[in-house]
Amino acid sequence: MWKKYEEFELEVCPGSVQLFPSDKAVSVSDLDYVGFEVKNLIVLDGIWNQPKAGYLSTIESIVFALKAVGIGENKKGLDNLLDTFECVVDDQRRCKDERLSKVFPS
Quick check: is 63 in a domain? Predict the structure, then answer.
């Protein structure tokens, strides 16, 4: 039933950090405070538990981290990315509401 996979090692360049939700995670501002220069941001995306109020999506977390460490000179482009994401979320909510109104008419 379970497949076995060989473990492998991945060489990570100096200055790399992993963006991952954890109670033990170090904040980006703490990295800056100790003088750690972030050059690469490693992001694992997947289907996590349902988000709670106040939590960020993966794309929101990426944009926040990039802005915080100064990666990506085009901050307007990052804002545009968030605007597009917000439109997608709004559209999904609208479609969900439309489907529910067909299943449960008033």
Answer: yes
Q: pTM to 2 decimals? A: 0.68
Q: What are phi and psi of 99, to 5 degrees?
A: -65, -45
Residue 68 belongs to a domain: yes
User: Is the distance from CB of 19 to CB of 43 less than 8 angstroms?
Assistant: yes
Q: Report if residue 50 sits inside a domain.
A: yes
Tokens coding 97: 């509401």
Domain hosting 93: range is: 16-103
How many degrees, rounded to 5, is the angle at CA 98 between CA 93 and CA 102? 145
Whether pLDDT at 28 is above 80: no
pLDDT category of residue 19 using cuts at 50, 70 and 90: confident
